[in-house]
Design a protein that fits this description.
The protein has 10 helices and 13 strands. β1, α1 and β2 form a beta-alpha-beta unit. The strands form 4 sheets. A 7-stranded parallel sheet has the order 3-2-1-4-5-6-11, with helices on both faces. Helices cover 39% and strands 17% of the residues. It is of the alpha/beta class. α3 packs parallel to α4. The chain has one domain: Rossmann fold (3-Layer(aba) Sandwich). The radius of gyration is 19 Å and the shape is globular. It holds the Pfam family Epimerase.
Length: 301
């Protein structure tokens, strides 16, 4: 089986590619802007006709799209998260219409959750950030493309190699810098929001199952830990692993984003039915692996 992985050098993409390489009778093809990629693809800028030629040359049985942007201005986010998946779908219809497409979406597409009520895939999507809105646009492009496609809506990934752009990787980096200095003070924003954390290795397992599972899959599947956890618990867990003896100064006045989305949790029942997938790692295991590997540059397990 030939599987083309886009965005394989990113945080999620590296784990997905590593998991796919472990599958028997599978050849993994890397696609991206890097000169080291097997196929040069820039979803944010390539025309669909150009993408179609590249896809025809790759001749994949499945495509896993891990490419996207989590930060930047609205234009950057739209180009990577909305325009990119739309162009990819147009190219697939032309060059590889029978290939399975697995697209990594985000739980941010749902927007605010109701405390105590895990959100299902049929819930209305009401994103409140440019990131969530552009990821939702990408999901709509995929689900309306008349392809053999599934969108995996990922919760908040945690685990080895977490980038410093996100809270887990940034917190690990801060703790490594602080060491065991009892006078150290780490100043953070509001940590009262609840999030659905999922181990990045479980995300990779879900993507591999979605790429290789026979038969038609539901258009959207939630991939998360299935539990809403206070962000404060993640910070405290990393601090314990670091042996941190200083003080965490939390701005309890809150932030606009935390106030708008104070609680998120995904119902992962459908993924269990469709893929036979359940998370194999809890938050403690994810934090253990993150701390052991280092912040943003550790080896994959």
């Amino acid at each position: 089986m030939r599987i083309l992985v886009l965005g394989g050098t990113g945080y999620l993409g590296r784990h997905v590619a590593a998991r796919l390489r472990a599958l028997p009778d599978t050849r993994i093809l890397a696609a991206g802007r890097s000169s080291a990629a097997d196929f040069r693809i820039d979803l944010a800028g390539d025309r669909p006709e150009q993408l179609a030629k590249t896809l025809a040359a790759a001749a994949p049985d499945a495509v896993v799209n891990c490419a996207g942007a989590t930060g930047g201005d609205a234009v950057t986010l739209a180009e990577a998260n909305a325009r990119g998946p739309a162009a990819l779908c147009a190219a697939l219809r032309e060059a590889a219409p029978t290939a399975r497409l697995v697209h990594l979406g985000s739980a941010a597409e749902y927007g605010p959750g109701t405390p105590g009520v895990p959100v299902t895939e049929t819930a209305p999507a009401c994103p409140v950030t440019p990131y969530g809105a552009t990821k939702l646009a990408g999901t709509v492009a995929v689900t309306s493309a008349a392809l053999d496609a599934v969108v995996l809506r990922i919760g908040n990934p945690v685990g080895p190699g977490a980038p410093r752009a996100g809270l887990p990787g940034r917190m690990a980096a801060l703790l490594r810098s602080a060491g065991t200095d009892p006078e150290a003070v780490l100043r953070l924003g509001d940590l009262s929001a609840h999030r659905d954390f999922v181990d990045v290795r479980d995300v990779a397992d879900a993507a591999a199952l979605a790429a290789t599972r026979p038969g038609i899959l539901p258009p959207v599947l939630n991939i998360g830990g299935g539990t809403a956890v206070p962000v404060r618990e993640l910070v405290q867990g990393l601090a314990r692993r670091a042996g941190f003896r200083g003080r965490v100064a939390e701005d309890t006045r809150g932030s606009a984003r935390s106030a708008a989305v104070s609680w998120q949790c995904s119902d992962i029942t459908a993924a269990a039915r469709a893929l036979g997938w359940r998370p194999a790692h809890d938050l403690d295991a994810a934090l253990d692996a993150l701390w052991a590997a280092g912040a943003g540059n550790g080896p994959l397990p």
